[in-house]
Write a structure and sequence with these properties.
By secondary structure, the protein is mainly beta. It has five helices and 32 strands. Helices cover 7% and strands 39% of the residues. It starts with a strand and ends in a 15-residue tail after the last strand.
Length: 453
């Protein structure tokens, strides 16, 4: 929902959070959907107009100065980015996330919102209910715990920004396992994790708390400094020791995977852009709704591999490119996913969507799913269908399988001809279609999702 009562949002990030679920049974599928009952949603529905709230890029007509003050009274709880499972077994909880420390809990079977919370953390002092965190927690290897971070910003000029790496046993039990500092408040949407380390790319995408308070728009408060360095922060999750390395500016969108090599190095694979935060302007709703503009948009991210040598304090990079311009799209994936059984381990396969309509893309006119083979260059595979647009895939491993790519790929695909979505099931090895199942509606391009068994 992007409009309500004569007021619309400008950026797709500000659409009201909505859950979509496909339950796969022995004899068929059940599709369901529901809006999350966040503060921003319930207040807006009650007023029949988009209610004052912190947004990514504002509303039209814009909030008055009085409404901007009112917006600061409420949490930034439009959790439309990702979903996650916390805890284990019968005590598991499911929550929708955004890049703030706020959790909209929901019932997995009914999608009913069961509460929105900003849980306190012992040892961290929140100065407001706007607490930067990350919509991409990761499971700590060998455990059922999740790892994430929170930022306690320094508000005094010259004061360091304090980041806390948090081990989450569930949504009420936390442990601080590391603490690091940066000179400026940097926006980080994801991070990497190995058996012993958590890796952050503190790129020069700087958020001004002062501007965010006065504009109540995150994008207006964010600035890119291409001449500054990216600080790579490596924190030991066993000891809490933190090391800092400097590298060229690059805007990291998503981490694919990270692992440690036998000779003590750290491999970190990311999707990233050299053009900084300009990538975020691609998701303005007027641009997305203009088909001629949309079909001229090109991918701005590319797959990169960073090799970190802590012993020598060095960083090496590899940018994936193709000599054949018609094959270069294979390296421009986004929303990367892997076989989670290979999280923090040496791996070969990463799957992602190519958000590209450039003329050099041979699958122009569709959003394709690419399977990158990191162990055998040139062996990448792709699924596409003209005028069909895939969302972020999920990999479901075969429980009896022995190979990394033995499993199925699930994706919600928009059929632009029928104007409906269908569940696409691909063979993870061959990338060939196994089956499809049309849903009773269309679903906007999903940011992120999870398969829960």
């Amino acid at each position: 929902m992007f409009e309500l009562g004569g007021r619309s949002v400008i950026h797709v990030f500000d659409g009201f959070a909505k859950m979509h679920s496909v339950a796969i049974g022995q004899h068929g599928l059940n599709f369901s959907s529901a809006f999350l009952k966040s503060s921003s949603y319930t207040r807006s529905k009650k007023a029949n107009r988009y209610a004052p709230s912190l947004t990514f890029l504002g509303v039209d007509p814009e909030f008055s100065e009085l409404e901007k003050v009112e917006a600061l009274l409420y949490p930034f709880d439009n959790t439309d980015v990702n979903v996650w499972k916390y805890g284990h077994g019968k005590n598991s909880e499911y929550a929708a996330l955004t890049d703030e420390w706020v959790y909209a809990k929901f019932d997995l079977e009914t999608l009913v919102t069961t509460g929105v919370s900003i849980p306190p953390i012992d040892g961290v002092h929140f100065l407001s209910h706007f607490v930067q965190s990350c919509a991409h927690p990761l499971i700590e290897p060998g455990t059922n715990n999740s790892i994430n971070y929170v930022l306690a910003p320094g508000l005094i000029p010259g004061q360091k920004q304090q980041y806390y790496v948090v081990r989450m046993m569930n949504l009420t039990s936390f442990e601080i396992i590391a603490n690091f500092q940066t000179d400026k408040s940097t926006y980080m949407h994801s991070f990497g994790l190995t058996k012993n380390y958590v890796i952050f790319f503190a790129h020069p995408a700087i958020v001004s708390v002062e501007k965010m308070v006065t504009t109540v728009e995150v994008a207006e408060a964010m600035q890119w400094f291409p001449d500054e360095k990216t600080t790579i922060v490596v924190a030991n999750i066993k000891t809490g020791k933190v090391e800092y390395l400097q590298h060229d500016a690059i805007f990291v969108t998503h981490h694919a995977n990270a692992y440690e090599t036998d000779d003590g190095k750290i491999i970190v694979d990311i999707c990233a852009s050299d053009d900084g935060i300009s990538i975020l302007t691609q998701y303005k709703i007027p641009l997305l709704r203009n088909q001629s503009d949309l079909y001229q948009s090109v991918a701005q991210t590319r797959f990169h591999r960073y090799t970190i040598d802590l012993a020598n304090k060095s960083v090496e990079t590899k940018t994936f490119r193709s000599k054949d311009p018609m094959q270069d799209f294979l390296h421009q994936i986004e929303v990367p996913i892997i076989n989670e059984n290979y999280r923090a381990r040496h791996y070969c396969y990463v799957y992602g969507v190519v958000l590209d309509f450039s003329p050099s893309n041979p699958v122009n006119g569709s959003l394709s799913i690419v399977k990158k083979n990191l162990c055998a260059p040139g062996k990448d595979q792709v699924w596409f269908h003209p005028n069909h647009h895939a969302s972020e895939p999920s990999f479901v491993p075969n429980p009896d399988g022995k190979d990394e790519d033995d499993g199925v790929i699930l994706s919600s695909v928009f059929d632009a001809i029928l104007e409906k979505n269908y569940l696409l099931i691909l063979d993870g090895k061959t990338m060939k279609k196994i089956n499809t199942a049309y849903m009773p509606t269309y679903i906007p391009f999903g940011f992120h999702g999870r398969f829960f068994s």
